[in-house]
Amino acid sequence: MCPKKSSRSTHFDYFNLYLIVRNVVAKYHTLCDNTTSNSSPLLCFVDDDYFCLCDINNTAQCFLYNKKFDQCKQCLAEGQCIKGDIDTPSDYLCLCPRCHFGSKCQHNTELFSFSLVSLLSPDLLSSSLVKQKVSLSMYISVPAVLLIYGTISNFFSLVTFRQPRTRLNGAGHYFFTGTIFSQLSLFCLLSKILHIIINIRGLFIQPIINTVLCKILSFLLSLSSRICYWLIVFVTIERIYVTIYPTKRWLQKPKIAKTIITLITIFTCASHVHELVKYNIVDDPKYTANGKWCVTQLSRPLQIYNQTNTMIHYLTPFLVNLIFTIALMILITRTRANIDRNKSRWKIFQEQFKKKKEMFIPSMIHIISALPHLIISFSLACNDLDTKWQRYMLIISYFAAYVPQCLSFHLYVQPSKFFLREFHATKIWKMLAQSRTTIN
């Protein structure tokens, strides 16, 4: 690549001397002559109008130069695009800004900006066919197992929370709605991965349908998983309220719970609406003839907003859940310790945890599943992910964050004697119990 005359390297100090000369091109011969003695002689250079070559006689051979030949707009994230062969569309190079990588600078590694496509694509585009096939089967089978198991678990939860008695308090409404969004998030996770594979492999799909899927799947995946986080937070808040004010019912009222659920849904949808607008399909002929990426094209202010928005929806529920769960444990232990002074607080805590485990288990499992991804995302922010284990740790932690969504029955129903009793009163359980009796 030929340097411009505005460069600050040693060769270009001569340019400043000749700027005052009316006919600059005539002085370029001297520039070629003066640089031949350097260890790295100047071979070519460009200015605003000319492209010049220094020949073997130290003479500048200059030609009128149209800079449009070198211009290309293939790069995202304000990356610098360098054009190669004019007749080859895929012959270009993107110089990506910090924290971005990829053939089009389409992948972002800033804090809370890792995308599923940026984590999976290196394996799906591997030069090794064996690695491609193994990765393909793994990345499809893991979310498929989560979806299948989650469908069974979520179905049992929905059947339970459709019982009128389970929704006399706010927690039942939060669990019922959370189960619906859990199932939606698992479905969108598998659909998103299949969509990524279809696009990377350049398989045929109608452009309009492809764009709609790109926008809708990304939006729903973000929306559903983050609503689940917020709903568990309000379950914990309600239980702290009951512990502090055992005789009051204001926050337990179904009407209050329905209002909170509506506000959470509206707030989460509104804060993610930019994903519907900014997610787009981008062609990338570098890998396959019809290869495409489903990526965001965000301006810098919108990038900052997106990053902040993700942190709010991820960090806030996590921290509130963590703090309130610890506070709930302390309150219950302290209340019981004031009644029974003959036992140690640790012994009382163990007894109360076993007795009221349904109050702690959902929040604790959500915290444990989210913690690895939180730590790794912070640790690897703006990292090039050159080391494979770093990327694989992110992938594992990403999938682990969806484990609570497929365990709703085990988290919400089984730990509670009341909810489990309501499940045993359903027709589904009676049919299962009858079939087991018949088999035995």
From TrEMBL:
The way it spans or sits in the membrane comes to: Multi-pass membrane protein
User: Which Gene Ontology cellular component terms are annotated?
Assistant: plasma membrane
* SUPFAM superfamilies reported in the protein's UniProt record: Family A G protein-coupled receptor-like
What are the G-protein coupled receptors family 1 profile domain coordinates in residue numbering? 153-412
Top-rank lineage group of the source organism: Eukaryota
PROSITE patterns, alphabetized? EGF_1, G_PROTEIN_RECEP_F1_2
> Which Gene3D superfamilies does the UniProt record give?
Rhodopsin 7-helix transmembrane proteins
Which coarse location class describes where this protein primarily resides?
membrane
Q: Name one GO molecular function term.
A: G protein-coupled receptor activity
UniProt keyword list: G-protein coupled receptor, Membrane, Receptor, Transducer, Transmembrane, Transmembrane helix
Q: Which ranges does the record mark as transmembrane?
A: 136-159, 171-190, 227-244, 311-333, 359-380, 392-413
Q: Which residues form the signal peptide?
A: none
Q: Where in the cell is it found?
A: Membrane
The name this protein carries in UniProt is G-protein coupled receptors family 1 profile domain-containing protein
What is the organism of origin for this protein?
Rotaria socialis
